[in-house]
Amino acid sequence: RIFQDKLAEIERHNAKYAKGEVTYTRGINQFTDWSKKEISAFLNQNKMLKSKIPGKYGKFFVPSNAAPATEVDWRDKDVVTEVKWQGDGCQSCWSFAA
């Protein structure tokens, strides 16, 4: 039943895309037959929110009297890393490339 409901939702959304009402399409993936509870448990949201990122990267501060930059290349600030597989945690490693 979960898959059927989500498939109907995908089809409704993609019909809106065809009419120009939304800017992206949806499709079937490995989570289409999972309930919200299953996805939440898989993503382990509570644990992810409490985790801290170790390493050399700290906060990036801009002086309050500085004029805002028209652009920033974060590679020059040494805060961009290569895409890495981070295990079976949140499954969002791909988003680094987006």
UniProtKB/TrEMBL annotation:
Top-rank taxon: Eukaryota
Source organism (scientific name): Asbolus verrucosus
InterPro entries per record: Papain-like_cys_pep_sf, Peptidase_C1A_C, Prot_inhib_I29
One of the GO BP terms on file: proteolysis
SMART domains named among the record's database cross-references: Inhibitor_I29 (SM00848)
GO molecular function: cysteine-type peptidase activity
Name of the protein in question: Peptidase C1 and/or Inhibitor I29 domain containing protein
Ranges where the Cathepsin propeptide inhibitor domain occurs: 1-39
Pfam families, per database record: Inhibitor_I29 (PF08246), Peptidase_C1 (PF00112)
